[in-house]
Amino acid sequence: MSGAYLPLLLLFSISVVNAVGMAVATHVLNPYRPTPQKEMPYESGMIPLGDTRARFSVKFYMVAISFIVFDLETVFLVPWAVQMRELGWSVFVAMLIFVAVLAVGLLYEWKKGGLEWD
């Protein structure tokens, strides 16, 4: 029975040795030498103006979460659309319910003003 776990143990030990080896090699081959240029904050190649710890509106996060939810919807819809004819009517009805729930959620968010950036 222990022979069945030998490949798993070997893979785990190689992974640990690799991770530790990379961390050690990073510190040995490239020691930390701070310079004023390296210590300066970098934002898209531009020198930052003002405080870099500015607060964002909650609406920004609401739109971001909405984008993620409706973007992940395609993860389910595209494979279903590719195999739609082979899957049958029961899966079609399930997908209609899925899209209806998302549509109701979008309508609710729209009515509550979650998509407005004022």
Summarize the structure in words:
- By secondary structure, the protein is mainly alpha-helical.
- It folds into two domains: 2-39; 58-112.
- Helix content is 69%, strand content 0%.
- The protein has five helices and no strands.
- It has helices at 6-29, 36-39, 58-82, 84-87, 89-112.
- It starts with 5 loop residues before the first helix and ends in a 6-residue tail after the last helix.
- The mean pLDDT is 84.
Short description:
With about 120 residues, this protein is mainly alpha-helical. The chain contains 5 helices and no strands. It folds into 2 domains: about 1-40; about 60-110.
Q: What descriptive keywords fit this protein?
A:
118 residues; mainly alpha
Based on secondary structure, the structural category is mainly alpha
What is the number of independent domains?
2
Query: Strand-and-helix sequence, N→C?
Result: HHHHH
In percent, how helical is the residue content?
Answer: 55-70%
Helical segment count:
5
Tell me the overall shape: flat
What integer value in Å does the Rg equal? 25 Å
The tally of strands reads 0
Instruction: Give the low-pLDDT segments.
Output: none
User: What is the arithmetic mean of pLDDT?
Assistant: 84
Biggest beta-sheet profile: none
Strand content range: under 5%
How are the secondary structure elements laid out?
Blueprint: H1 6-29, H2 36-39, H3 58-82, H4 84-87, H5 89-112
